Amino acid sequence: xxxxxxxxxxxxxxxxxxxxxxxxxxxxxxxxxxxxxxxxxxxxxxxxxxxxxxxxxxxxxxxxxxxxxxxxxxxxxxxxxxxxxxxxxxxxxxxxxxxxxxxxxxxxxxxxxxxxxxxxxxxxxxxxxxxxxxxxxxxxxxxxxxxxxxxxxxxxxxxxxxxxxxxxxxxxxxxxxxxxxxxxxxxxxxxxxxxxxxxxxxxxxxxxxxxxxxxxxxxxxxxxxxxxxxxxxxxxxxxxxxxxxxxxxxxxxxxxxxxxxxxxxxxxxxxxxxxxxxxxxxxxxxxxxxxxxxxxxxxxxxxxxxxxxxxxxxxxxxxxxxxxxxxxxxxxxxxxxxxxxxxxxxxxxxxxxxxxxxxxxxxxxxxxxxxxxxxxxxxxxxxxxxxxxxxxxxxxxxxxxxxxxxxxxxxxxxxxxxxxxxxxxxxxxxxxxxxxxxxxxxxxxxxxxxxxxxxxxxxxxxxxxxxxxxxxxxxxxxxxxxxxxxxx
Length: 488
Description:
CATH architecture of the largest domain: 3-Layer(aba) Sandwich
Structural class: alpha/beta
Largest sheet: 5 strands, mixed
Strand order of the largest sheet: 3-4-5-6-7
Strand content: 5-15%
CATH topology of the largest domain: Uracil-DNA Glycosylase, subunit E
Mean pLDDT: 85
Number of strands: 14
Radius of gyration: 27 Å
CATH class of the largest domain: Alpha Beta
Number of domains: 4
Number of helices: 19
Shape: globular
């Protein structure tokens, strides 16, 4: 803040760091409860200089300042932005919220538009850091550790560090950035001062392996150069070992796509029959046996021979639920896709990868939840050499509901999350408008709570990059609500 403004302010607040949210929150509470207007406050991150302003005023021990919880969560995000005016901006919002309690819901308000834009910028930077950090190995044996260099636009190291702890718990690592560094020794996380790029190691032996992997997963048929550059801006390329491959991969994309199409398998692929024969050696449609399973593994084994609807005829195998039998929450999707049909596991395809990533961002451990589908067989339409997903009809949903009810009986969850309309129809026995009721919790007659949201495959179908990122954020918000409900 310019020195003239500092001199004019009645109160100068000194914060310990660029991300000192606790300090900002305490100061803002004291100021607001003593009726000190935003215009009379100057905010400054710790600096040497003459003593300007006065000590912060005290408040009565039993005094209360009530603001929406949503504001506190959003303020924690905005505090990570690089805008030096963010502290005063947030205090102005806090000041207004005392007399305008519905302010956060007024999308046309300039301050709210700025709040949303600032939040979005921080979330985008968080995502970029998670996507583009590349660790390089240094040392051997007991001295082995991994070091990465990253240049964020905002002050997100502290906010992002626990994500890397969860993702790379088993290795010792450091992430160096210009303003702060994060270090994990396998037991404790430490945030230290910034570093320079020269402090980060150069290439390591794994570089060539990583480039080989990147080239092997590059899909030329889905290449969209502009979209790729939006998602992976060139400013990050200098720190990415795979960046040197990108120009050649783009140049050869058309030829590689044609070759890939020529190699695509027919429908069904030859190995489908082998997998199917293994799971259904005697596929007699009259062979319907009422299972008497007492646990999930037994129920899964019984379901391998299910003939309750005609979908078993063309599917490769039954794809049953997966997860601990004492899980507090069950996530219910629509039906298995092509990759799930081959693997025999739920949510392992493209939608499953989106699901896993957002669960991780919401700090929900998939290993501790039960994941299943309303319909256990892949329903599809042959289109050329591909199998295209086809939505299950009401009869197929009803036929498979028997299995879902048994899963609910055995797991006894406190909460069920309906991922999409098919799951909601199966759980509630009727069609519900997901877009209108998204985020609602419906209690069934048996007392089971059902949380409604979209299926992650909906995100994959969005073509516009910004719209897709916005929908990811909405789905992440839904999962954070689920985490709160799990604890309730």
